[in-house]
Amino acid sequence: MPLSARGAWALAGQALSAFFPRGQDLINCAKEAIETESYESDGGSGAPYTIDRGRDDSAHVVQSFAGSVADVVAVAHEFGHAVQLRAAQGLFIPPILREMAAFISELALLDYLKSIDHACAHAIADAHLRDTAIYMSSDFDALMRAIECGTTEYNYRWNYPPARALASVLFGNVPRDALWRILIGKVTFPHCINISQNTGGFETVKKHLPEVPKAKDDCLALGAYRSLGMMPLRGIESWQGASYIPVGECHETFLRRMRERTARVVIGDERKPVGHTAWDIDETASKTGRLPRQSAPLGDHFELQRRARSYLPEDVSVHARCARQEQAAW
């Protein structure tokens, strides 16, 4: 393919800017400021990678480039990483969200080349398809074996199958503004799954937490201790700063609400914890209930809200805007 590494880098930037006009300034900044290092390779070794060098320094992209269509896809992949790191400004991005950004960047390249009827559009799409076959076969199998085993040493490639699948489902099926927020790392992975459910891509989220034993009349204290432990555990979301609240303060808050009967751990149909919710009742406003705290670690906010309503007195209604607002999720 008659394209240099620098040309492929510029093409990836053009594609992403065309797909995300609102992010053009950030994309152009990444395209010009990110340090890239390219070397020729026969494909035998040396996979491309991007290094995050912190808030005060730009990312460093190292890529092998021999001019093949697969190399162009790889450059678009690393460009997605670079843009996300530029947006993150040193903040930690979970690996699976890093790969989603890279895969969205690849898909934006395919979309752009198709829209301008580029001569290599079909060849690059075929290279992308071959990559998908690897991610969803050998990498997927390795991930499933690791899940079944439970003691396998961590491998970064486990992030590729779910990230690839989710990026493919969301791309073209959700508003571009939402997709842009995903690319720059402003949306949690469970929230991404929630969004994908609305596109018909996934039907359920498997809950791996153990079942909660049924409460017994002679073990009410034990049940209370369980609830007191589950609430802060379900409420640790570092992006909202909850993980930095002192343990004593956290314990005191939940204990007070349990005594007031204004907080509950929500248990789903499978007797697995969905999350927890807390509520306040405004006696002066026709008994309107507000939900100041809704924590659903698995992202199932709708189930949390449905069940939360059943805990409130019958003559109390939930404030509509409060129930719709975005809630914390892992």
TrEMBL record:
Superkingdom of this protein's organism: Bacteria
Protein's name in the database: Uncharacterized protein
Species of the source: Tropicibacter naphthalenivorans
